[in-house]
Amino acid sequence: MSKTLIKVEKLKNYMDGEWVDSSSGQYASVTNPATLESLVQVPLSSEGEVDQAVQIAKRAQKSWALVPAPQRAEVLHRVGLLMKERKEDLSQILTMENGKVIEEARGEVQEGIDMAFYMAGEGRRLFGQTTPSELKDKFAMSVRSPVGVVGIITPWNFPIAIATWKSFPAIVAGNAVIWKPATETPLMAYELTKIFEEAGLPKGVLNLVFGSGSTVGDAMVEHDDIRVISFTGSNDVGRNVAGKCGQKLKKVSLEMGGKNAITVMDDADLSLAVEGILWSAFGTSGQRCTACSRVIVHEDIKEKLEEQLLNEMAKLSIGNGLDESVKVGPIINKAGLEKIEKYMEIGKSEGAKLLAGGYVLNDDKHASGYYFAPTLFTDATPDMRIAQEEIFGPVVSLIPVKSFEEAIEVNNGVEYGLSSSIFTKDVNKVFAAQRDLDTGIVYVNAGTTGAEIHLPFGGTKGTGNGHRDSGVAALDVFTEWKAVYVDYSGKLQRAQIDVE
Ligand code: UN1
């Protein structure tokens, strides 16, 4: 279809404003999960290339930090304009490399555009604080200063949005960036870097190093001159990254899994809840950290909800996301597909009832891609593995409960804490829920997905380590607070002593 949009055969790294072949000479093939056709070759760079990028970034960062923040912001503004101009092409390329349906791809690119204009605005704020000093004729303030060279490691499931959540605040705050994108989705990294180049980002401020997590990612985490790592990805890798950064006293921001639930109370607008479940559970085939994978339902409406869900699920068309009528795209790769399949056996053996789906699609229309049928389990109990572990596929488990209090307890009874949602018309439950749902993001009468970029994104417990992506909170990851005292008394004044 739009294969002509991809103008390169072999990708190159981007260092010091130049596109350079990786010195490793090793490549991996990137395939479209909807068709299995090969799209491009991505270099698997070596550790030495990370060090090379860091040396470049260190030099570039010194002058970039001296550019006034409103001017740094102008680059982001131009990035936003270029992304807007190319939104449709970017969305199609995104659908080809990641598989998500085109409507979702457009939404993701739009997130990046919104982030560009939002962070461009932050360049005119980057607010600090003034604070009264304890002493006379002394001025005290806290200012944000850049950290230096920062490393960002981004996932395949939101290859452009998450890259903007991390790189834009880092750049506007005056840092230089080393970026390792996921090898499954390097084209978004290539396109965004080209846009930065065209927007006039000075050489060396952004350096792109393609490669594996175990080589490039590890070298970034281990490098003493990368002072911050911002990582989104799997739980296992994240914990490993956290451990290594901890040893090095390196700031690390982690955003990992979710086991997000939608609670449907007995007074909910059922059609609305069904729409919310479908969009959040199947919109990206469940391959997002905020995907809904549990539905906690009041027992009085359980059967009605099941019936409506099954009716609507039967209408979902599954296929190549470039086709506008398709609502559920493929799974990213074979390993992803096999992991989902494994959970089917687990769910059944645990005693959950399979109401729909549960299998890999192998018919003529789907045999040439990685497709899994949207799946609904019911009568799951909170402790089952299908109700506890992140499956990262189009699989939802219904858990019946007797009360609002029980719903909250079940929602919170998992290791993760990213997003949650409740459908109810009772205003008292709305306010109690926003207080009691133990997740970083709470929705009322909406699905668990669709976070807006000017609010903090991240979660509690096993989802992360307390930092937030996007929103103004992202600046806390990429800046150091510096306390500045200006004494204009002309005397050596000492704090913390009694002053007459
Ligand atoms: C993710 O899955 O890591 O709120 C990102 C959402 C999107 C971003 C998800 N705006 O679902």
Automatic annotation (TrEMBL):
The active site is at 255. Keywords: NAD, Oxidoreductase. Residues 19-484 form the Aldehyde dehydrogenase domain. InterPro entries: Ald_DH/histidinol_DH (IPR016161), Ald_DH_C (IPR016163), Ald_DH_CS_CYS (IPR016160), Ald_DH_CS_GLU (IPR029510), Ald_DH_N (IPR016162), Aldehyde_DH_dom (IPR015590), ALDH7A1-like (IPR044638). SUPFAM superfamilies: ALDH-like (SSF53720). It is an enzyme of class 1 (oxidoreductase). One of its GO terms (molecular function) is aldehyde dehydrogenase (NAD+) activity. Its EC number is 1.2.1.3. PANTHER family: ALPHA-AMINOADIPIC SEMIALDEHYDE DEHYDROGENASE. Homotetramer. Belongs to the aldehyde dehydrogenase family. This is aldehyde dehydrogenase (NAD(+)). It comes from Pontibacillus marinus BH030004 = DSM 16465.
